[in-house]
Design goal:
The chain is of the alpha+beta class and about 130 residues long. Helices cover about 30% and strands about 25% of the residues. It has helices at about 10-15, 35-50, 105-110, 120-130, and strands spanning about 1-10, 20-25, 55-60, 70-75, 95-100. The strands form 2 sheets. Strands 2-1-5 form a 3-stranded antiparallel sheet. Strand 3 (about 55-60) and strand 4 form a beta hairpin.
């Protein structure tokens, strides 16, 4: 079983000492006045090239409630090779690498610190705890 993640430049990580500023993370983006489920479908298509129709909201969470008001909506979705419509990579000058990784490899990358994004770690742990990938 595999997971789709992205690798892209994130200025705050660069400022905090990430040498190249690149961060491996799950698809995400701003709502832009859309409902959360529609926003994640849009972001998944833009960032990865996969068109997913059925997404399942698993929970909402504040990632840093002591300093920001942002709430994150967490979703999971199944995909197949047929769901890939284009190469992805983002829009508006985004430079996004699409990574399709074995689930076990992604979990190892959390342990080694290669994956440091909180939302991505949360989603991967949720998948492991709930045996979503068998």
């Amino acid at each position: 079983k595999t997971v789709i993640l992205t690798r892209q430049f994130r200025m705050p990580t660069f400022i905090n000492g990430n040498p190249d500023g690149m961060l491996i993370e799950a698809c995400a983006g701003l709502l832009d006045l859309d409902q959360p489920a529609e926003a994640i479908r849009r972001e998944t298509r833009e960032e990865t090239g996969f068109q997913i129709d059925h997404v399942e909201k698993i929970f909402e969470a504040y990632m840093s409630p002591g300093s920001v008001t942002e709430i994150l909506y967490f979703f999971v979705a199944e995909y197949t090779a047929q769901d890939r419509k284009d190469d992805g990579g983002g829009i508006d000058n985004e430079d996004i690498d699409v990574l399709e990784l074995p689930f076990e490899k992604a979990m190892q990358m959390v342990s080694t610190g290669e994956i440091k994004d909180g939302k991505t770690i949360t989603l991967l742990c949720h998948a492991q705890i709930n045996n979503l990938l068998g």
